[in-house]
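Help: read this over?
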Amino acid sequence: MNMKKNILKYTLVISISISLLACNKQESSIYISTDEEEWEKGETTEILPEYGGKIRIDSSTELPDGSYVNMDKDVLTLTHRPSIFTLKLDCANELEIIGADSYGIDIKEDQSAGNTFIIKTGLVPVGAMESRTTLRFKRKNLTKAYPEDTVSVVLSRNPSEYEGIMNFDSPTYMYDFGTYADGEFGKITVAEDQGIKMLFDNDEAPWVMLAEEENASGSFRILGGWRPNDPEADGRVQDAYMVIYDRETGNEEERYTIRRRNYGMPVTYMNGVWWCKYNARGNSCDFNDQILVKDDPAAKAGMSLLEYLNNCTCDEYMELWTWAYQSDNAGKEIKGEDGKITVSGYSAKGQNLNLADPKSIAPPGYEVPAFEHYNRIFMEWWMYIDRDNGPHRPHTPWSENPQVYVKSGKRSDLVLDGVGLPVTYHFEVYNTKNGKKDQQVTFYGPGSQWNGNGINHNKILFTCHSSQGKGWFNRFDSYGLQVNGGSGADTRILRLVKTPVEYMY
């Protein structure tokens, strides 16, 4: 410590004038005047407390492998690996620890010897930068602690290069998405003498994989996967362990936990798209409001969805049918009121849902179908939902399946809140392979409401993403299905699709 005191100098100029009368020695006068000049700085004097110099790291300290002390013996640099060791300090006074100015280092006094301290550090995780911690001490013979009574400990960055959406902070070294997640989580490159692998608990599926990049040995993409119609995708916790190990010995050196909630909605594949089997319900972004794989009513009944809609009870049909969307992800329930079927909370003002971000009104891993996705399975003007028909050449034929067919179904026994519904249609779009029905998607739901008069039965408006607001609509007349995006005031059914993933397990 260097405490400095400025000694200031003030100059006082005194002028004395003595006048003596030569002829009269008894007469005399003395005149005194003073002039002040400005303060000016004088010399600097250093004042030190009474102790024997700066704290140094004792050269007898046994350092962890790869660690070193600087020339001034006041900075200790450690590797990224976890360590525990005794730090010895060279000081003429007995020291006590005040604390560290950051996290990541634990320090406590070693009671077996003076000026010795037990240091414990954790693993510096991948992606973390080098950090510097100041350890602060107090001399027991002094009443105050001084800023200079410190040594520094530097934790080196992890040599593995990592970038991505996951942060593996100590002490858990876990990244928990908190919900469902898939896709690319990050990229990692390990050192030449290291390897990396993914491990799982015995009963867990390999839902994360490491995909080595071409022409980049030791560099991997971390991919989260998806399993269609996974019966275990009920919201349970899924863990995967990313392990970095020594190539020579095989010993594990670092372990990181990746955690998500495994949610999944029933899906059906058609013309390159995994369509959700059922319409969205409630909060369309919340898995807990949706029908999950384990709750699939048609699958439980051993039927296709079209068969189920034809044969289920009225209450079971209404469980699926009574939801519409307008402007956002907040589903509006369909109610029977004053003798008509209406959208609860309908507003004449709204925004065209087709213009929304396709992932903003869907749970993680899912999205609103693109306009082009509907184009692969719908034909304009000549495709009808109230009758069996086909083959049709869709608006944008899918190269592998350029034709589609329609299988329709209807219910005339539906009642909602005491109000009877007119004949209500649902329909299946399918293609064929070797002359037999192959891939299919089934559609159902309330007709659109665009004013205060209630829904327009069977005139379904389908939510689909388009930067121009385009969409598909069923006129339920001689024109059948047509390209029509509707307006912001119109309500729609919301059928989602699975966001494409690179890794399926």
